[in-house]
Amino acid sequence: MTLLDGKRVAGEVRARIQTNARELTEQTGIVPGLAVILVGDDPASATYVKNKEKACAEVGFYSEVYRLAAGTTQDALLQLIDRLNADDKIHGILVQLPLPKQIDETCVIQKIAPEKDVDAFGFASVGKIMIGSFDFLPCTPAGVMELLSAYSIDPCGKHAVVIGRSNIVGKPQAMLLMHQNATVTICHSRTRDLAHYTQDADILVVAVGKAGFLTADMVKDGAVVIDVGMNRNAEGKLCGDVDFAAVAPKCSYITPVPGGVGPMTITMLLQNTLTAARNRAKSE
Ligand code: NAP
Predict the structure, then answer these.
(1) What sign results for the dihedral spanned by CA atoms 46, 50, 51, 56?
(2) Bond into 141 cis (ω within 30)
(3) What does the pLDDT look like over 260-278, one tens digit per residue?
(4) Tell me: the pLDDT tens digits for 189-201?
(5) Nearest-5° angle of CA 13, CA 63, CA 67?
(6) Phi and psi dihedrals of 82, rounded to 5?
(7) 74 among known catalytic residues
(8) Is the whole model's pTM more than 0.90, yes or no?
(9) 138: CA distance to ligand 1 center in Å?
(10) The one catalytic residue among 116, 117, 119, 128
(11) Mean pLDDT of the 198-227 span
């Protein structure tokens, strides 16, 4: 069994991004810029935002973070996005989800200009992912694909099973695996006899959000297991959706949590921001 070391791969990709960003600045004067908007005081969201800010600084990007009160109105948020859409220093805009109840997430996400939609959640980005012609890839699924590629795991012809069908992980993950010629099965909470599908998976991506969800009896020998889950166990420790100790011995490759998919996600956000800045340079 080989561990898919997201921390190491993310470090390598970030070094490449840093070099590419420096070259872009030397050639065009453009410094890739990311604006992150956080509404409210959810501690997990605050940590994610802080990590994004830190990651930007590490690769030499410009960043702005807007920490708005939980009671912020939708109108105020839309106005801020309008302003950032028109700001030349900003190439990517990310609104940290979830948003407080008074704000319609779909409406807010659609307000982000498609050329700055570095989370790739807007209609235009999603449509482009569907047809396989995209600028921005959804960060977590793209991170998974990058990790597979770093270990020369080719999805072509393999049976890939994705558990979870959220718009941010499961659905785009299935699409990216299909674009790389895997035969894909998507499972969810209404799937009957889940183990029937998982036991046939060559590549198994688990994005459910329940600690210990995937057990050893659900996995075939030699499978590649990607654990997207980020949960806290009873002791408050970060853990994934996979019963790692029991599943790992059966796998050819498996991601740890932490240190697997997590570090790749922010790395792909940096990659998308660099792409947005390059596109901007081309359009000038
Ligand atoms: P989500 O929106 O809650 O979706 C969970 C999915 O799991 C749903 O499609 C749901 O099915 C399915 N599911 C729930 N119970 C199931 C069951 N018993 N059998 C089969 N499927 C079941 O969650 P998400 O946003 O996709 O995130 C999933 C996990 O990934 C979470 O732990 C989250 O924290 C983590 N995550 C990690 C990263 C990272 O960077 N590592 C990024 C994003 C998310 P239905 O659709 O039928 O309800």
Answers:
(1) positive
(2) no
(3) 999 999 999 999 999 999 9
(4) 999 999 999 999 9
(5) 120
(6) -55, -45
(7) no
(8) yes
(9) 15
(10) 119
(11) 98
Given a cut of 90, is residue 140 above it in pLDDT?
yes
C-alpha 274/C-alpha 157 separation (Å) is 32
How many residues are recorded in the chain?
284
Residues near 248 by beta carbon (within 8 Å), at least 6 away in sequence: 1, 225, 254
119 is catalytic: yes
Distance separating alpha carbons of residues 218 and 199, to the nearest angstrom = 5
Cα(214) to centroid(ligand 1), Å: 13
State whether the beta carbon of 265 lies less than 6 angstroms from ligand 1: yes
Task: Give the tokens for residue 216.
Answer: 């050893």
Domains of the chain: 29-113 (3.40.50.10860), 139-262 (3.40.50.720)
- Ligand 1: does its nearest atom lie under 6 Å from the Cβ of 191? yes
**Index of the ligand 1 atom closest to the CA of residue 169:** 26
List, in sequence order, every residue forming a beta bridge with 163; answer none if it has no partner.
Answer: 187, 206
The region, left, alpha or beta by phi > 0 then psi within -120 to 50, assigned to residue 65 is beta
